[in-house]
Amino acid sequence: MEKITKEMGIMDIVTEHPETLEIFAKFGMGCIGCAAARFENLEAGAKVHGIDPDEMVNAMNELVEKNAGQ
After folding, report:
1. Is residue 31 within 8 Å of residue 56, measured between CB atoms?
2. What would the mean pLDDT of 1-15 be, rounded to a whole number?
3. Per-residue CA distances from 35 to 6, 31, 64, 66 (Å)
4. For the domain that residue 53 is a member of, what is the CATH number?
5. 70 lies in a domain?
6. Which residues, 6 or more positions from 44, have their beta carbon under 8 angstroms from its beta carbon?
7. Sign of torsion over alpha carbons 70, 59, 25, 36
8. How high is the pLDDT of residue 1?
């Protein structure tokens, strides 16, 4: 399984790992309805919202790994 990185596109992450929507919501990023989500990477989107992209990436990878183990 490929790890999520902050360089990945927001829509690419959500398409590949729909469970990450809960992480976007937890961090207050309603990205899916935002037009910028179609071309922004996770780092750019997080910074616009004042969020640490590394913290988001870690939370997403933990969730994806947990779900893969089930």
Report:
1. no
2. 91
3. 18, 8, 25, 30
4. 1.10.3910.10
5. no
6. none
7. negative
8. 62
User: Which pLDDT score is estimated for 27?
Assistant: 94
Amino acid making up residue 61: N
> Helices H, strands E: what count in the chain?
4, 0
Residue closest to 53 by CA, chosen among 13, 2, 1: 13
Closest-CA residue to 58 (of 46, 48, 69, 50): 46
Taking Cα atoms as reference points, which of 64, 69, 66, 40 lies closest to residue 53? Answer: 40
> Does any domain span residue 5?
no
Polymer length in residues for the chain? 70
What's the pLDDT tens digit per position in 34-65?
Answer: 767 778 899 998 998 999 999 999 999 999 99
In this prediction, residue 39 carries a pLDDT of 83
